[in-house]
Amino acid sequence: MPALVLIGAQWGDEGKGKATDQLGGSVDYVVKFNGGNNAGHTVVIGDDTYALHLLPSGILSPGCVPVIANGVVIDLGVLFQEIEGLEARGVDTSKLVVSADAHVIASYNRVLDKVTERFLGSRKIGTTGRGIGPTYADKMNRVGVRVQDLFDEKILRAKVEGALELKNQVLVKVYNRKAVTVDSVVEDLLSYVDRLRPMVCDTGLLLGQALDAGKTVLLEGGQATLLDVDHGTYPFVTSSNATSGGACTGSGIPPNRIDKVIAVIKAYTTRVGEGPFPTELDDGDGERLRANGHEYGTTTGRPRRCGWYDAVIARYATRVNGVTDFVLTKLDVLTGWDKIPVCVAYEVDGVRFDEMPMTQTDFHHATPVYEYLDGWTEDLTTCRTFEDLPKNAQLYIRTLEAMSGAPFSSVGVGPGREQTLELRPLL
Question: Where are the domains of the chain?
Fold first, then answer.
C-alpha cells in the first residue's frame, strides 16, 4: 500500500487541511512532517469549523492515527492547548503519536524570533514570531532540544545551559533584553513530561512497519512549495522543507515508498508575509477576492495578499515536487467576474519567461503576462459533479489543468466536506 504526500503548490493557505480531511477516512496514518504552529489548517465538518495549527488534520478522522514526525518543531504549550480544545468539543485525540526525535521550541526561541524581526525593520521576513526559525537554526547548529531530551533531566539541563551561553549574550548585549534563566526553561519543559511520555515513540519505525503491513500513510506538509527554504522565494520562506522531498527527511519514510504526490492549489493565488508576488492585486479585485474567499490567516489572522492564478508557479510546483495530482480549491470564489485573468508567463525587462526565473532579482521584477478566460455568474456551491458546473467554469478548470503540468483530480466549490467534486480517484 502507498505512502502519499500532500503539499501546497503556492505560498500556503490553499486548503490542505480540507484535502487531508477528505482523504482521512481512506488512510490509516496522517503524518505532519515539517513546520510547527506557524501555519494553520481549517477543516469544516457540517456546522463545525476546526482550526488546527500543530496537530495533523487526521486528528479529526476517527479511524486514523495522527503522527507528529521528526521534521516538526513542537511548542508543547500549543500542543496541549490544541488537544484540550479538541477534547472539549468531543474529538478523541488518544491516538496521537509524537516523534522522540522532533525538536522542541523553548521559550528563548520565541523571544529571539520576535526581537529579531523587530530589529530587521524594513528587511523583516514576516515570520509569525512563534520561534520556528530559531528552533530550526538550533537544530542545524546542533544545540537543539529534542522531545527525548525531556525524559533525562541531566541531559536537558546541559543542553539548555549550552544554548543559553550564547543566546543570553545576544539578548542582553545586542537587543537590550533580560537574560533567560536555565531553571525557568527547564522547569517549563519538564512540566509537560507526564502528559507527553505516553505519546512518544520511534515514529520512523512505526510508519515503516505500517507500510509493511499494508497500511496507507498520508504525509501532510505545512506551508507550501514557494515557502520551502531551498526551493521557495528565498529569503521570504519558512525554515523547513515544505516540498515532497521534505516528506522523506521529515518522516523517515524513504522515497521509494512514496506512490503519489498530491498538490493543493487555489483557483487564484494568495500570500501572507513579505516577498515578491507577481500577480498580486492592490485594487478592488484584490479586495473582492479577499472578501469572497475569507482570506485571513488561520494562525495569525493577518489579511492575505491576493492575486490571479499563476500557471508559471503551478508548473514549477509540478516539477519540484513530482506532482501526480492537483486538488483545485475555492473555485466558487471566482463567481461573478466577466473575465478572469490567468498568468501564463512573466516579462522581465522585455524578456519573456515561461518558467520561473533563475534569480530573485528577476522574479522580484517579473510582470505577469495574462490570458483572459470567460467568467460565470452561477452559484457553484451546490454543484456536486463536474457536469453540474457552468460551461465557463468547466473550461476554466480544463484550461488551468492544461497549463499546470499535472491532472486536476478534484475541485472544491465551498468549505464543506461535501463541496468537493471528484474528477478522478486520488486513492
Answer: 3-99+198-262, 103-194, 265-422
